[in-house]
Amino acid sequence: MPLQSITELPKDEAYKIALSLGSNKAKAFGRFKDFKNYYPRRIETEKWLYNLFIKLGGEPETEHPLYFVLEKSDFLYKWFSKGNS
Predict the structure, then answer these.
(1) Contacts of 34 (CB under 8 A, 6+ apart)
(2) What pLDDT score does 85 carry?
(3) Could you give the residue ranges of the DSSP H alpha helices within the chain?
(4) pLDDT tens digits for 26-50?
(5) pLDDT at 48
(6) How far apart are CA 76 and CA 13, in angstroms?
(7) Where are the domains of the chain?
(8) Angle, in degrees to the nearest 10, between helices 35-55 and 11-21
(9) Which pLDDT score, from 0 to 100, does residue 24 have?
(10) Residue 75 pLDDT > 50
């Protein structure tokens, strides 16, 4: 399934995929090199987003949303080598 959140997978499968992604040299995959620390933070972020969405009147279709930056982000622009990575 395209754009499936890694947290929708069983934990052991997510770690297996993260191990393979962590070997990629692209900056965007850096979080997978330290997945044991990234994964719990990602789960907590998703819970926060889910609960806030409900609090604001939303009716979520999933507990594991895909989330994006919709506006300009100087941090991300620099982090992704000015959009070239």
Answers:
(1) none
(2) 44
(3) 11-21, 35-55, 74-79
(4) 555 677 888 899 899 999 989 998 9
(5) 92
(6) 28
(7) 6-79
(8) 120
(9) 60
(10) yes
pLDDT, residue 73, reads 80
Contact 21, 56 (CB under 8 A): no
- Evaluated on CA atoms 33, 3, 13, 65, the torsion sign reads positive
**Calpha distance 56→59 (Å, rounded):** 9
**35 vs 20: CA distance, rounded Å:** 11
| Token code pair at residue 35 | 């997945």
Q: How far apart are CA 10 and CA 18, in angstroms?
A: 12
How far apart, in Å, do the first and last CA atoms of the chain sit?
23
Question: Taking all residues of the chain, what is their mean pLDDT, rounded to a whole number?
Answer: 81
CA distances from 12 to 17, 48, 56, 77 (A): 9, 23, 33, 32
DSSP 35-51: HHHHHHHHHHHHHHHHH
Mean pLDDT, residues 10-21? 88
